[in-house]
Amino acid sequence: MPIELKHVTYTYMPQTPFERVALQDVSLTIEEGSFTAIAGHTGSGKSTLVQHLNGILQPTSGQVLVDGTDLAARGKAALAARRKVGMVFQYPEHQLFEETVALDIAFGPKNLELPEAEIEQRVRQAMEFVHLDYETYKDRSPFQLSGGQMRRAAIAGVIALQPKYLVLDEPTAGLDPRGREDLLQRIVQLHKKEKITIVFVSHNMDDIARTADRVVFMDQGKVLLDEAPAKAFFAEKEIAQAGLAAPQMVTLLTKLREKGLAVDPAAFTMEDGVAHIMKALREAKSC
Amino acid sequence: MNFIELTNMSHVYHDGTENAHTAVDHIDLTIKEGEFLAILGTNGSGKSTLAKHFNAILLPTEGHCRVAGMDTADEAHLWDIRQQVGMVFQNPDNQIIAAVVEDDVAFGPENLGVPPEKIRQRVAESLAAVGMEHYRKFAPHLLSGGQKQRIAIAGALAMHTKCLVLDEPTAMLDPSGRRDVLHTVRQLHEKVGITVVYITHFMEEAAAADRILVMEQGKIVDDGTPAEIFRQVAVMKKRGLDVPLAAEVAWRLRQQGVRLPERILTDEDLVMALCR
After folding, report:
1. Annotated domain spans of chain B
2. Is CATH 3.40.50.300 what the domain over B2-243 is classified as, yes or no?
């Protein structure tokens, strides 16, 4: 069963001078088991969109269904549906608050009124999953961790809720290159091993190229493009309109091609890119 | 002329308690007037702590920090130092205070007691310098992240600041916002001769600087031109950092026997080398 957005429109501060339509008639289906990236410039509506996926925002008109249940409904079914969707906000480490890492991660499961033993088990698993050693870090203050560790501790707090769908809004912003790569790999593992459906908001096309199987470009509150990454990254017009940039490797290979080296620009990784250039050099000798 | 001079400078947070943490560890550093310096380092390496000494937000717990010859620990110089060194932070939404762009840019000079007609002139010049003159009457919340950062830069320029310290100014921006901010900073450096200290996790932004410092655990572990720093691909990766894409492609091509010039930092360098 999927998450379905049906003709969702969202207006901030309706009937005031500040009224602004942030989403306009957006219909989108997030299939179970998929890895969807949502990209767009600041103000394109991407964060507003994902805040509808677990009912933080409710559509001004239209419907959001999680596994067939309307999130706007009242009662237990809608609550259970909202709980299927875990949400990692931008800069989630700003929301850490407990005295120790373990207590912070346990906060969500405790609110689900799970038995103590299960809570501990979930905290342990979530920490292991984000590569924070349980014994080393459980009793540390979250505020003594490094930036990357704080980010991962905050994400562990959401993973401990064992969501079926996980939404991450700009999870790698502000991390150093290694922290960024580690976190991306953790997210890919969550998708592959735990079979969690991922919705990943980012304007980093390199991150998207290496992780997602589908990318949605948002622009002015509407879906501008909805494609497989391999296709989306060559949609020059839409990339420019969405205020984005093609992955760096694609950009480099395209420039080489424009200057006469007959290289295949469809490469997203360092290995593929270098292989494509070597192949073109061997075939051309000079260009 | 040296603009910023650090001598044997350290900063220890919670000094003297059991939570004591040395963020900057006995650093000697000089930054020349008119230089464009980028600082790289992993999260927690001490970059931001270091930068906050440059306009006396933090004071050294050991050693000295001098800005334009003034010791930052001497309170008598505080306002002079802050007027000469402007800071721009990561989050554009935390830095803008007024409801109209021109009021925000005027805030600094107003506090300096600059006469109104001079303020008007400074605001106009500063907004023009960051390419935002048409947004004078705009409400800041209607601007994009990149535009807000340029307003923050204009606010520093209106103080007639000599040095801009930018702490990950593009971390929260989309690609077009990142391009605009970096372009603005380069223009100010090249045309106005402003001294720039630019902290970033984006290697291709650091490649635009004259000089790069690499920090690790509160110490400076490398100091050189972008070409010198980014030549060491394996070393940079081991440090948890990276090199610009073109530099790594060039490095890998060389390993496979392709002959390339030493200095390849940008896509354009590589295109020039391969498509002669």
Report:
1. 2-243
2. yes
